[in-house]
Amino acid sequence: MLVSDIEKVQSTIRQIVRDWSPSGAHERSQCYGPIINKIEQLFPQDRVCAEEVNILVPGAGLGRLAYELAKRGYTCQGNEFSLFMLFASNFVLNKCRGLNTLRVYPWVHAGSNLLTNGDQLRPATFPDTNPSDLHRQAQFTMAAGDFLEVLH
Ligand SMILES: C[S@@+](CC[C@H](N)C(=O)[O-])C[C@H]1O[C@@H](n2cnc3c(N)ncnc32)[C@H](O)[C@@H]1O
Question: Which atom of ligand 1 sits closest to the CA of residue 15?
Answer without folding.
Answer: 9
